[in-house]
From TrEMBL, chain A:
InterPro entries found in the cross-reference section: Acyl_CoA_acyltransferase, GNAT_dom, ThrE-like_N, ThrE_Dicarb/AminoAcid_Exp
Homology family: Belongs to the ThrE exporter (TC 2.A.79) family.
Entry membrane topology: Multi-pass membrane protein
Entries under SUPFAM superfamilies matching the protein: Acyl-CoA N-acyltransferases (Nat) (SSF55729)
PROSITE patterns with a match to the protein in the record: GNAT
Superkingdom of origin organism: Bacteria
Subcellular location per the Swiss-Prot or TrEMBL entry: Cell membrane
Record bears the keyword GTP-binding: no
Name assigned to this protein: GNAT family N-acetyltransferase
Keyword line: Cell membrane, Membrane, Transmembrane, Transmembrane helix
Membrane-spanning segments: 286-303, 312-332, 338-358, 379-401
N-acetyltransferase domain boundaries: 1-145
UniProtKB/TrEMBL annotation, chain B:
Domain (Threonine/Serine exporter ThrE) ranges: 9-132
Membrane association type: Multi-pass membrane protein
Name this protein carries in UniProt: Threonine/serine exporter family protein
Record-stated family: Belongs to the ThrE exporter (TC 2.A.79) family.
Keywords: Cell inner membrane, Cell membrane, Membrane, Transmembrane, Transmembrane helix
Natural source organism: Ohessyouella blattaphilus
């Protein structure tokens, strides 16, 4: 026994299909729209079936019939099992449309189908069907068991979205990724609403069934590597190369992607501050001082992040630290002149909220005003915190040293 | 001349490179990040000889965003990778410091002037980004132009 999907010369099978459905127009119609499967034994066609995909992970079995002299040998049930297995990947529910005759209904009921709470009108919305005839139809339904179902797909999409949002992705990218993943796994009645701190997804499955997830996404320190990795993964998913289980594993891996080592981060902060200081107008000795100040500053930043200090404390104390160190260095007996401003301007660069600022602008440009405003306020407040920190330290030293230091 | 190159080419490149590390950008994009920052700074530098600081920042931002979008299409990754580190040389960090400094030393007129200048520069960056974001993606594909001309 072997089953194969028939893609060529489908018209040749109309005669066989009409055993199960007397209306030729009907048969022609769904033969065009659906997938035709044939079961062969000893290279002779024994049984045929047509399945039409509906949207949102559902399909309908339009016809399943066995040539009369071959009945009672299990060909029909074998074909049905085969089709259920094939469609389990892309569908959660299979409907079947049959004549209201007892043996027919019993055949399906024995194989796990139950009466569906839908009527003919339900399908008429999916496709215009002419000449329905006076045949009374019965609708049965069966849940297809597979590792993939709507809930799992939504959970996957939500996780990908969460990782993006947490690590500095834009709102539209989060929404796009969620839609892309859901569409790939045939979930298409989906609404998403993404804010700067939360994701809301609602999926309608069937007529009265909805699955909704709300996820609070607290702000973490940005990691653009994760954004790039999730983005690449979502491309692969929508390209059809990755299935749900593998996607979950890959996301878990991406989530654990470590940030660069602390030493590298400190050096990066130092070099960034030093080079920026130099081309923003500091002298070479001042830039070298910038380097050391920024390295020490980043020690504080990492300490504060590990212990979950809020942004206000982190940035204000950061500002104080920079200015104090700069003042301290001017008091050292060095052979050259160092100005406080020259050292501070470079050294505050690692604190500047570049990512929040850029993302805020891009969200606003994409008309995501709510999230854009929140992120913009976040960025502006960080600027203010830094200024307050620098100002407070400068003020204290100004009074202490009677203005000589400045 | 050597000094000019070091000041205006090596420094912005390495500085932006360092910020790319700080934002955990994947390793393979480091060089492109440096390049983006460098181009932004050079455009800013040349423009600043002819116009005000805010206008120069606007043009510098345009350079950064256009280059980032081009790189995004070539490298197939989110634009944030290049845009965030690339924009850093143009962010008015000095303005923040100067404002705080003048406020503390009670030079209120200078404080308000430098504060307003910083805001002006920030708006120039906003304008620069907002102008380029809505340009359709296809325009950054070489293929599109090849078909258009050919």
């Amino acid at each position: 026994m072997r089953v194969e999907k028939i893609t060529e010369n489908k018209e040749d099978y109309i005669d066989t299909l009409m055993i199960g459905d007397s209306s030729e127009d009907n048969v022609r119609y769904y033969l065009e729209a659906g997938n035709l499967y044939g079961l062969y034994e000893d290279e002779i066609l024994r049984s045929v079936s047509v399945v039409i995909m509906l949207n949102n992970r559902k399909c309908v079995l339009k016809n399943l019939c066995t040539i009369e002299e071959d009945r009672g040998q299990g060909y029909g049930s074998h074909l049905l099992d085969y089709i259920c297995e094939v469609y389990a990947d892309s569908c959660d529910l299979m409907y079947v449309e049959i004549k209201k005759e007892k043996p027919c209904v019993d055949f399906y009921k024995k194989r796990g189908f139950s009466v569906a709470p839908i009527s003919q009108a339900y399908f008429e919305r999916y496709y215009q069907q002419k000449n329905y005839g006076k045949v009374q139809h019965e609708y049965l339904t069966r849940t297809l068991i597979s590792a993939v179902n709507v809930k799992r797909v939504v959970d996957l999409a939500l996780k990908a979205g969460e990782l993006l949002l947490q690590n500095g992705g834009e709102i539209f990218r989060v929404e796009e990724t969620i839609d892309r993943i859901c569409n790939r796994f045939y979930v298409d009645k989906i609404d998403t609403f993404v804010l700067s701190h939360g994701i809301f997804i609602s999926v309608r499955n069937g007529e009265n069934d909805a699955y909704t997830r709300v996820k609070n996404v607290p702000l973490a320190s940005p990691h653009l590597g994760i954004v790039a990795a999730v983005n690449a993964l979502s491309r692969e998913i929508s390209g059809g190369q990755v299935d749900v289980n593998e996607a979950f594993e890959r996301l878990d891996e991406i989530e654990k992607m470590p940030p660069p080592r602390p030493l590298n981060l400190m050096l990066a902060a130092g070099f960034g501050a030093g080079f920026f200081g130099y081309f923003l107008g500091s002298t070479i000795p001042e830039s070298i001082a910038c380097f050391f100040i920024a390295v020490i500053l980043y020690l504080w930043v990492m300490f504060a992040k590990r212990h979950g200090f809020n942004k206000m404390i982190l940035n204000t104390i950061g500002g104080v630290l920079i200015t104090s160190l700069a003042v301290l260095i001017t008091r050292l007996p060095l052979p050259f002149d160092l100005s406080i401003s020259g050292m501070t301007i470079g050294a505050i660069m690692p604190l500047i909220p570049g990512l929040a600022f850029v993302n805020a602008i891009r969200d606003i440009a994409d008309s995501d005003f709510l999230s854009g405003t929140v992120r913009m306020i976040d960025a502006i407040l960080v600027f203010v915190y830094i200024a307050v920190g620098v100002g407070v330290a400068l003020g204290i030293f100004n009074n202490l040293l009677g203005g000589i230091a400045l | 001349m050597m000094n000019f190159i070091f000041l205006n080419v090596i420094c912005p490149f390495c500085g932006t490179f360092a910020f790319a590390v700080l934002f955990c950008v994947p390793k393979k994009y480091y060089l492109q990040c440096g390049l983006t920052g460098l181009v932004g700074w050079l455009v800013y530098l040349f423009a600043s000889h002819h116009t005000s600081v805010a206008m120069a920042t606007f043009f510098g931002t345009l350079g950064v965003v256009l280059l980032s979008r081009g790189l995004t299409v070539i490298m197939r990754c989110p634009i944030t990778m290049f845009l965030v580190p690339g924009i850093f040389p143009l962010i008015p960090g000095a303005g923040v410091y100067n404002t705080a400094f003048y406020l503390v030393t009670s030079q209120l007129d200078k404080a308000s002037a430098s504060g307003l200048n910083a805001i002006k520069v920030a708006f120039a960056i906003v304008a620069g980004i907002v102008f380029v974001v809505p340009i359709p993606r296809e325009l950054f594909r070489l293929e599109y132009w090849r078909r258009k001309i050919g």
